[in-house]
Amino acid sequence: MRTLGNISAISLFVADVPQAKAFYEDVFGVSVIFEDEVSAAMKFDNLLVNLLQDSEAPGLVEPAPVAARETGSRFQLSIWVDDVDAVCVQLRERGVAVLVGPVDRPWGMRVATFTDPAGHSWEIAQGLETS
Q1: Would 40 disulfide with which of 11, 21, 56, 88, CB 3.0-4.6 Å?
Q2: Helix ranges restricted to H, the chain
């Protein structure tokens, strides 16, 4: 049996696919590898992020309900970087509001967070040197 330890793709439910697509292209510098009228699949190094029109989401998760953006964050995606402070400068230059940080966490990471236009939480993080 193949191991289930390698995440290949995640679908993010969004209200406005063109807006989300433009955000991901601009902020992350990723390319669209598939697009139709209700979705845009963005290629990260080892992960495919599928931006799916939220009206199409019930077909993927039923019988579970699709949560509205206003219900709050239910997960966070993290990207490890070499310099959180420098990345925060780049994010702000691209018009992204950094919500938290950069701040040092007790578990040895320096982090900052922001959200995409659909409210999905993203964290950039770097390991802190311990002596």
Answers
A1: 21
A2: 17-28, 58-61, 84-93
- Name the token pair of 23: 């955000």
Q: What would the pLDDT profile of 60-87 be if each residue is shown by its tens digit?
A: 888 888 888 888 877 889 999 999 999 9
Q: Which two tokens stand for residue 39?
A: 């979705």
Model confidence pLDDT, tens digit, residues 14-72: 999 999 999 999 999 999 999 999 999 999 999 999 999 999 998 888 888 888 888 88
Read off the tokens for 103.
């701040």
Distance CA 52, CA 70 (A): 18
Residue 78, token pair as written in the block: 């993290």
Integer Cα distance of 88 and 102 in angstroms: 8
Q: What is the pTM of this model?
A: 0.82
User: What is residue 49's three-state secondary structure?
Assistant: strand
Distance from C-alpha of 66 to C-alpha of 84, rounded to nearest angstrom: 33
Other beta carbons less than 10 A from residue 31's beta carbon: 11
